[in-house]
Fold:
Amino acid sequence: MAALAPASPARPSKRSRSLRQAIGYGLLYVFLTILAVIFLFPFYSMVVGSLMSKEELFRSYPQLWPPNGPQFTAYRLLLQIATPEEVAASGLQNINNYNFVRYIFNTLLIASVAVALQVFFNTLAGYTFAKRNFPFKNQLFSVILATLLLPAAINFVPFYLLVAGTFGWKDTYWPFWIPSLATAFGIFLMRQFIASTIPDELIDSATIDGASQFQIVTRIVMPIMAGGMVVLGILTFVAVYNEYILTNLIISKPDLRTVQLFLANFKQATIRAPLYDLLFAGSVMATIPLLILFFVFQRKLVEGVMSGAIKG
Structure:
């Protein structure tokens, strides 16, 4: 009599697998929601604080919403559209000496020009290291990467002596643009993107068709590398927009100040009687350009990061 084959273990039904998968996704979404609340709560507190009066801010218990409703006095004071009564009540009679809109414009100008220059020249340098051959290419690239290991603080004194003394760029925006036309990180990032995205056959075909190297970069490489250029541009914009130490070293004229320098100086000037409602309002308005930048280029940013991650 033939032996009976052992019964195979029962497989979980499709319904049970779907249920476990739904529970797993549900727990994941709950965890991500908690993380999002933790990360967004400081920004929410800043926004709510900017809509409160000084008396409401200094209550003994935290407020999740303005008790007397949102008040936009701090924003009107910074934008210089407040009434004389609001200026008098703020206790800051020289508020009109602070041109907040001008500071925002100065910061956007510095960051925008820096982005345009760095993206262009870093792409040129990255293409050269990725697709061109010249003596000591690898050694030079290693030296450039080695500069990333140097602490930024050791450059402050020689940088100031060079740009303020030798070139006479004190109280100008040139130190934000010229010395950083091509950065070590930017060259490395664009080299990696180009090396993993642009095939050599495409470069060879363009060369055979008579295109110069500059035409290859501007007409072939840059359109294909739009995602990588957006990644570099956003990183550069955020870094320059939030720059404080270099700005504090170079800029002393009030009409050339950036928004970060204004917020720091304003906090120091009112340290005996902190005007946190104005500081919160200024911080909120200073954050808005970064949020707009992210939402406008969100898709390109994700595409650029994923392109480098998959092909690199």
Observations:
- The chain is about 70% helix and 0% strand.
